[in-house]
Amino acid sequence: MPRKNLLKNVKRIVVKIGTSIITEDGMISTNRISTLVHDIVSVIRQGHEVVVVSSGSISSGAGVLNHDREGLTIPEKQAMAAVGQIILMNEYRKCFQWEGLEVGQILLTEDDVNNRRRFLNARHTLNTLLHFGVVPVVNENDSVVVKEIKFGDNDTLSAHVANIVEADLLILLSDVNGFYWDLSDPEPVEEIFSIDAEVKRRAGGSGTVHGTGGMATKIRAAEITIRCGEKMIIAHGREENVLSRIIRGEKIGTIFVGEGHPLGSRKRWIAFSMKNKGIIRIDDGAVQALRFNKKSLLPSGIIEISGKFDSGDAVEIVDANDQQIGKGIVNYNVQELQLIMGKKTREIRSILGGTYFDEVINRDDLIIY
Ligand code: GLU
């Protein structure tokens, strides 16, 4: 499909900028940032809203304190981030001011997107900044997080930011031209419509076409983005005017496009911010009902449950072959569900001795992948 058509309704964009495209010999480069900022501003001047997610705090700190980034301990990296984040923001502020715009800094942790109240607070602040014509510049709050509560990489963070602001498009700018099916291919794949096991295999881990790290987190970001019904592009951040050209419809990099409609904000939150507390395995009839007939999940289709969940928690739904089907908020806790799984809806009342919900997961609380 022509890119122009795929991008015709795009208004709000999240642009993720990788460390490698704004540094030169391990130091932040004003030149590179100002070139990118100029491109971002020209997209804004065409009527788009842009949220920037920028890496580079640890490298900036390490550069200015003369440390080699590799080999730093976690507290040392956190200290570098504390030093470097100011340098990074100063650069962005200076470059955006040259173009007549102000920036606002938002530092997030994974905790912030898992907590509904903080998720909404972040959304309100980001929306308000955009409303004031200020460019939000987001990074992970590296100085205060440890591994367990860390996104760990800004690809994942940027997909969550896109989700928080309900962006129509996420653009990941780094030092790769896109997603390559095979390293011998001269060009990256133009379009990807679903993230299946083969795409993940080719993206992930060492010994694959993309080597370690890098592409796996980008594919994870693509998975989050297209499950929300939005689009993502991987492109090289050093291409000239890369953003303006993408927005004009030039076929640059790889675009990931979901087949579903954009999810509403509540469902996005269920899908990506609520932690899975258990697994519900369902039979083929229930898979059909959920996937094709847009039904709620009833007790009769459940064949197995595991985990420790309460009513109101999120659980993952899988089929008999362990394929992920979706995720939803359960109306019953694990003990209740043990008693009613496999039973007809009308039997629930006599088993549990009270009036209960007909559905285990109501359609409104359900996301199907
Ligand atoms: N938040 C880290 C930084 O600013 C970068 C993480 C990443 O590049 O994915 O240095």
| CATH architecture verdict of the largest domain | 3-Layer(aba) Sandwich
The bound ligands are: glutamic acid
Q: Count of helices?
A: 14
Give the overall average pLDDT.
91
- The total number of structural domains is 2
In terms of topology, how is this protein built?
Blueprint: H1 3-6, E1 12-17, E2 23-24, E3 27-28, H2 30-45, E4 49-54, H3 57-64, H4 74-98, E5 103-108, H5 110-114, H6 116-131, E6 135-140, H7 154-164, E7 169-174, E8 191-192, H8 197-203, H9 214-227, E9 231-236, H10 242-248, E10 254-257, H11 265-272, E11 276-282, H12 284-291, E12 302-307, E13 314-318, E14 324-329, H13 334-340, H14 348-352, E15 366-368
Parallel strand pairs: 1-4, 1-7, 4-6, 5-6, 7-9, 8-10, 11-13
Antiparallel strand pairs: 2-3, 9-10, 11-12, 13-14, 14-15
Helix pairs in contact: 2-4, 2-10, 3-4, 7-9
This protein binds glutamic acid.
Question: What would your notes on this structure say?
Answer:
The chain is an alpha/beta fold. The chain has helices at residues 3-6, 30-45, 57-64, 74-98, 110-114, 116-131, 154-164, 197-203, 214-227, 242-248, 265-272, 284-291, 334-340, 348-352, and strands at 12-17, 23-24, 27-28, 49-54, 103-108, 135-140, 169-174, 191-192, 231-236, 254-257, 276-282, 302-307, 314-318, 324-329, 366-368. It folds into two domains: 3-266, Acetylglutamate kinase-like (Carbamate kinase, 3-Layer(aba) Sandwich), CATH 3.40.1160.10; 274-368, PUA domain (Archaeosine Trna-guanine Transglycosylase, Chain: A, domain 4). It has 14 helices and 15 strands. It has an eight-stranded mixed beta sheet with strand order 5-6-4-1-7-9-10-8, with helices on both faces. Strands 12-11-13-14-15 form a five-stranded mixed beta sheet, with helices on both faces. A two-stranded antiparallel sheet has the order 2-3. A hairpin with a 2-residue loop joins strand 2 and strand 3 (27-28). The protein is globular and about 70 Å long. The site of glutamic acid (GLU) has 11 residues, from helix 3 and strand 6.
